[in-house]
Amino acid sequence: MQNSPLDDFFAQRALVILDGALATELERRGADLNDPLWSAKLLIERPELIRQVHLDYFLAGADVATTSSYQATFEAFAKRGFDHAASAQLMRDSVRLAVEARDAFWAEPAHRVGRKQPIIAASVGPYGAMLADGSEYRGHYGLGEEALMDFHRPRLQVLVESGADLLACETIPCLAEARAIARLLPEFPGAAAWISFSCRDGLHTSQGELLADCVAALEGFDQVVAVGVNCTAPEHIASLVDQMHAHTRKPILVYPNSGEHYDAAHKQWHGNPSASHFAEQARGWHARGARLIGGCCRTGPDDIAAVRQWAAASLPPSNASA
After folding, report:
1. Is 241 part of a structural domain of the chain?
2. Which positions make up the signal peptide (predicted)?
3. Which residue numbers belong to the known binding site for Zn(2+)?
4. CA nearest 292: which of 260, 264, 254?
5. N or C end of the chain: smaller count of CB under 10 Å?
6. Which residues contact 272 (CB under 8 A, 6 or more apart)?
7. What is the count of structural domains for the chain?
8. pLDDT (tens digit, 9 = 90+) per residue, 203-250?
9. Does 275 map to a domain?
10. Is the pTM of this model over 0.90?
11. Which residues are annotated as part of the binding site?
């Protein structure tokens, strides 16, 4: 079996706490991300703000930082005039910023009490994110697995060598892309990844396949060290965890959206989410079998802090030493 950077956490606790949204949190702090590069735009313009958001998530209680490389692809950077070497450096910078935030957090002795040193997950967005047209919520790319492997290979090469602890392959809309990534991983011995799907309802991926079938198909890929769901409405998560729990022995992760709904016509979010409600939902997802929990779009440090507070009060650590 592949050694996982998550193993040490699971040896000591019943839950690993992920961070929350990056892009929408950057927007909340005044960043203009109306751009095909989305959060990766700030790798060029305001890297210090990315570093600060990572630090704030660690302070809130996150065990994992997910980097700003979701939409950072060679194709997207090329459209902005960056050559291959410069694009690769920006991808490495996304990991460096998270590492710097982690190191600054861990340098304070008070922050280590009851904590393990956080880890860095290099975000690998789907092919649809590069298209910047919402395809990660539809799938149906019209590409086979070999073509998807060719797309992902160069970026995985950079991110695997960047110093990240694992790869966060996220918002994957279909099994073909998940399998393409899983089949690529043996080209990078020692690399570990989670694969997280976007889903349209309580049973199906965004492309319409049964999530249960998708996670079952990944069971034999040892370098896939966790499977799950992200960027999905929270009302679907309980059912989706049930589906996964019945078809995989891998740790299950969930990091849904806040529960707000986006009005694309007016470019506004609607809803009244609360951190306490998010934490209460997290309690239910954990009870069903989720072992890694965080947030996606429109969640923030307050949501992660609420999850941390609930977990600290309700989930005793194991007998392993810290």
Report:
1. yes
2. none
3. 231, 296-297
4. 254
5. N
6. none
7. 1
8. 999 999 999 999 999 999 999 999 999 999 999 999 999 999 999 999
9. yes
10. yes
11. 231, 296-297
